[in-house]
């Protein structure tokens, strides 16, 4: 079973809800939450991948049943806790005694990329296969493309620290990402629609076509 | 354990960080005020210019964030990059983030509720025509649908097809029909929504409360 957050192609979610809700926020505290997230990242206390991973390893029932902001808040809180910036006790001093903060269990250690910093391995038009299986932990290659073969469209302009490392608060070598285009019916043979899906994947998730 | 206290826990996290001297209230306030400038009106102005100026459009396709700054001043978006994707009568691009809910907020605004829903994240990659149909968008069978899954630090904005009947419109009039939904690719701009020069803004492009 894919990790809870890895939802692409999973059945069972029904009609798209809240089609009319395009506005920027419901209540102002939602922006307070995003401000706190961005300030911590700007100050270098955690990387976006570490925040993402703190959110991803929330308990499955919690992830699937709580609001977007509750998931996000829990990920941010855990990112701050794990960076040692604030303690749960210090946060709870500002809450009514019956309110506790959810804590997600660290998972790890991280897994290395290929440690080929900024090497350009692929060009547009190359056929590539996504590695499968991929190690446990923080992975930014959705389950639905693992083991699948697609065509490189282009390369990201910036090399980025490998998510499998920095998502676990470990140093990671920078790698380029490649936008890889997959035929939808290669991903799901029974898909009603033809067409393609394009996914942006770190070098270490890819091999030359198998 | 009580987990339905998102507002209280958000403010407690903020207050604990401020009490400890990790952030100042001024820093949090400045960040929130910056979010006021992140609206889909930015992306709409960029699309309108692209519809009117082919050279601008070519630069936009090569470098969306840098080129957008010729028209609007979106707040720099961390280490992110952005690509503009042009819809045509043959190809329709539409965006999703299956692993979380990433967007280029400085051009599109905050991700809307439906974009953050588990159903949208799960279904769009696999059955885009059914999902677009729920938004009221029916594409001709020969139009290829490309779904872009935002999995690394590059986001996208869609340049919708310029609707028939907009010949001779000003850039402001053109921008007034470009919505957050059309920048994501789940609807086509509707010429009936036009706001003529000098008219007050509609709720579609304002920062709006619930």
UniProtKB/TrEMBL annotation, chain A:
Which EC numbers does the record give? Answer: 4.2.1.84
Gene Ontology MF annotations? nitrile hydratase activity
Q: Which residues form the Nitrile hydratase beta subunit domain?
A: 120-207
| The Nitrile hydratase beta subunit-like N-terminal domain, residue ranges | 1-95
User: Which reaction(s) does its UniProt entry say it catalyses?
Assistant: an aliphatic primary amide = an aliphatic nitrile + H2O
Query: What are the record keywords, sorted?
Result: Lyase
EC class of the enzyme, as a word: lyase
Q: What is this protein called?
A: nitrile hydratase
Give the organism the record lists.
Xylophilus rhododendri
Q: Recite the lineage of the species.
A: Bacteria, Pseudomonadati, Pseudomonadota, Betaproteobacteria, Burkholderiales
Automatic annotation (TrEMBL), chain B:
Query: This protein is called what?
Result: Nitrile hydratase subunit alpha
| Claim: Zinc is one of the keywords in the record | no
What Pfam families does the record tag this protein with? NHase_alpha
Taking every annotated instance into account, which residue ranges of this chain make up the domain Nitrile hydratase alpha/Thiocyanate hydrolase gamma? 7-186
SUPFAM superfamilies given in the database record: Nitrile hydratase alpha chain
Q: Which GO terms describe its molecular function?
A: catalytic activity; transition metal ion binding
Q: Which UniProt keywords apply?
A: Metal-binding
What residue range is the signal peptide?
none
Q: Which InterPro entries match?
A: CN_Hdrase_a/SCN_Hdrase_g_sf, CN_Hdrtase_a/SCN_Hdrlase_g
